[in-house]
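Support reply, case 0932

Customer input (verbatim):
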Amino acid sequence: MGYRAGDHVPLNTLSFVPEGDTIHRAAAALRTALVGRPTLRFDAPRLFGPHPAHLRIVERVESHGKHLEVVWDDGLILHTHMRMTGSWHLYRSGERWRKPSELMRVAIEVPEWVAVCFSAPVVETYREFDRRRHPGFGHLGPDLCTASEAALADCARRVFHYDDPDQTIAEVLLDQRVACGVGNVYRSEVLWACELNPFAAVGDLQPVDCVQVINAATRMLRANLKHSTRVTLPDVPGGLAVYGRNGQRCARCGDTVQVRRLGEHNRLLYWCPGCQVRHAPPVDDTPPSMMREMDPHPAAAKYLAELPWRREGRDPLAG
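Our regenerated output:
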């Protein structure tokens, strides 16, 4: 067993950074390399939970959004949550690691392969029969990469009936209890595709909006399952509509893409104020210093003011 020439996963070193589609691909690659093979070595220097016994067989590798689990034949589960920093690498036995060993959180060696998890904030083990009692694990929503039509409809209902109606739709999209798979890149891209204001209160959304958001997220995630580079808008340089395009012209309306830190973890949110106007709150609570500038430095303000499409009287759609 292992990779063969022509497989959709490259034979050489593989690395995966956190987002729903990449974690899904990571799980697929790890599944091919680990499942059915005995554990020759298990190293997790910061793990206080039980370790798999020598030669125990890896039975399953599963992903749910940014959660990735490895399950052994004795019911032991390794649960890792990538958040913003974690990644899984897959190496041939004896191959040099591409990251420093001090960043290693888990290393699983089987015949021919070594799977290494770097910098994951959450690494823990527990027995399969304890899953429902596992503290903090919660009830995850369906994985949009693999969810059925019925499960997708349930995700839309979770958005519509969200327990905090004043929460912004931008934050709700990252809630893994609603659905798994949407990370920071996709939430910006999904909201742009739906023309939804990211600061809209989820309680103001209509059922059709909730369905549209879930369908757009599902479509984007599944379209990128077999690609290492995320593309949501092929005609735009870089392939992304707004993410990472702060200060640049919106491909749809010509206004200037903005960025703001939002939520408990201060993650960067990108959006276009010119066309993402659906369900916009009556009063934008964005601080005045961040309303039009990409940062508060005077040089940045001057740069943005001189953009051709932002000069006084200039048609924003003119060339």
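We compared this against your earlier run and they match. Two observations from our side: Helices lie at 20-34, 149-160, 169-172, 184-193, 207-223, 298-305. The CA atoms of residues 13 and 91 lie 5 Å apart. Please reopen the case if you see a mismatch on your end.
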